[in-house]
Amino acid sequence: MHDTILLSKISQGLAECCKRGKITKVNKMAVIVNKDSHVNSNNLFEYLRSYNDGLIDACTEIKIEIGDLPDETAIIRNIEGDLAEG
User: Fold this and answer.
1) Pairing mode, if any, of strands 74-83 and 23-34?
2) Strand pairing partners for 64?
3) Beta strand pairing status for 23-34 and 61-67?
4) What is the pLDDT of residues 26-70, one digit of tens each?
C-alpha cells in the first residue's frame, strides 16, 4: 500500500496523544492529509484498529480532511474520547 508509512505515523501519533492526554478510548478523531494521499477513513480505521488495540473500536468515527500538506504528512486535528479515571 502506498501510504503504509503515513498510516504508521498516524498510528504512532495517536498512541502518543492518547498517552499524554490520558485517553483510554477514542470516540471521534479528525485527520488532515494531502490531496494526493490514499489514506481514507476506511483504511485508517482498519489500520488503527489493528495497531492501536483498545483505543479504537467499531463505534469510533474517523473523519479525513484534505489540506495543503507535504507528501507523507498528516495532522491529527482532533481527538475525542474517554479519559482515564484518577
Assistant:
1) antiparallel
2) 31
3) parallel
4) 999 999 999 999 999 999 999 999 999 899 999 999 999 999 999
pLDDT band (50, 70, 90) for residue 86: low
Under 8 Å CB-to-CB from 60, ≥6 apart: which residues? 26, 27, 28, 29, 45, 48, 49
- The CA-CA-CA angle for residues 59, 19, 79, to 5°, reads 45
End-to-end CA distance of the chain: 40
According to DSSP, residue 15 is labeled H
How many residues are present in the chain? Answer: 86
**Secondary structure of residue 45 in the 3-state scheme:** helix
